[in-house]
Amino acid sequence: MIRIGIPSFGTDTGRSGIGSYLRELILRFDRLQDAADPEFYFELIGPEVDRSHYLQHTRNISWYQVEGADPSPIRNFFWNQTKLPRICRRQKYDLLFLPAANRRLTGRAPCPTVGTVHDLASLHIADKYNFSHRIFNQKMLPYLIKRLDHIITVSGFSRDDIVKFSGVPGSRVTVIHLAADSATFTPAEDRHAAAAKVGAKYGFKPPYILYISRLEHPGKNHNTLIKAFGALRKAKTIPSMRLVLPGPDKERAEEIHREAETSPAAADIVFPGFIDAEDLADFYRGAELFVLPSHFEGFGLPVLEAMACGTPVITSTAASLPEVSGPHTPHFDPDNVQALQEAIAGILKNDERRSELSQAGLAWAADFSWEKTAAKTLDVFRSVMGKNAAL
């Protein structure tokens, strides 16, 4: 049996894309343990709050509790270099899996390491982090990535980034795509009812355009979308509707709120904050259009989630988004407000085009699955263990 330790640090207790990634993998790993003679033993390492989230509805994943190790990235960096290796020895792990390896890494593990580097956004987006974070990301992160025995990443774009910035041979990087959970993200029987449900709960009136993301400026590019929406509403180019922007306030969120407050469509721009997980699919189902205008995405999971719900999607041309959204999806320059206006209007004013995008998106999203993601991840574990056994 292969004993695998999995630190949960850097995954935001499920309140981010990385957290969703870990949760979906944990659920699939748990099902493997139902076998009479399981091949793997999994143990999650982290605080009690993560246990409550990630191990809910699981039966076979073990737990190693650690409190106070992750109050800041810098403090967790030193913990990873000193205390995590001791835990690996004490628990006799055969392999350490780091699901947030673009945030939390160790260079001193006593066993083989596999890490998922979702993206290197910190090296692309100016002013995303303070000085100390920038130095760590520019100097230490590439070094620590090199120390991994194998790297998983989520797109071909991110693979190329990792090879370029870290100097890791491409043979040590495996692309494993993410997916929309097929049990959660499904088309609505009544799209208008889904819209009415979330509108009543979160205080806005449908119809609406949707963009779900943490409120982070400038990387997530809310302001370009707000400007395009304001111009369209002022010119009455599109029907009367809301722009709904769920997500928690993060870096420079006040600049996003300021842009919305000064928009000619300010009364129709809605910030619901962090929404309950059980409402996420209905937000997608009820939307007239899902827009992802980001300047950078290592993958862009909301694209597939929206498509799986039957919602038309348009995205920017940035980073991995053309790869993840597929050739059927309209794309626009993330810095071109006029291009975004035209893309939105082109969908909302053409019901036939909306229907075509909806059907194409459903077919595209169905080709991705978490079962495939988990199976390919386990193949990487086997490969790494096999190589080390041969040494």
Q: Could you provide a short overview of the structure?
A:
The protein has 391 residues and is of the alpha/beta class. It has helices spanning 17-32, 48-54, 73-91, 131-147, 156-166, 191-202, 222-234, 253-261, 280-286, 301-308, 321-325, 337-348, 351-366, 370-390, and strands spanning 2-7, 40-46, 62-65, 95-98, 113-116, 150-153, 173-175, 208-210, 242-244, 269-270, 289-292, 313-316, 331-332. The chain has two domains: 2-178 and 369-390, Rossmann fold; 191-366, Rossmann fold.
Written account of the structure:
The structure is a single chain. By secondary structure, the protein is α/β, with parallel strands linked by helices. It has two domains: 199 residues, Glycogen Phosphorylase B (Rossmann fold, 3-Layer(aba) Sandwich), CATH 3.40.50; 176 residues, Rossmann fold (3-Layer(aba) Sandwich). Helices cover 44% and strands 13% of the residues. The chain has 14 helices and 13 strands. It has a seven-stranded parallel beta sheet with strand order 3-2-1-4-5-6-7, with helices on both faces. Strands 10-9-8-11-12-13 form a six-stranded parallel beta sheet, with helices on both faces. Helix 5 links the parallel strand 6 and strand 7. The mean pLDDT is 93.
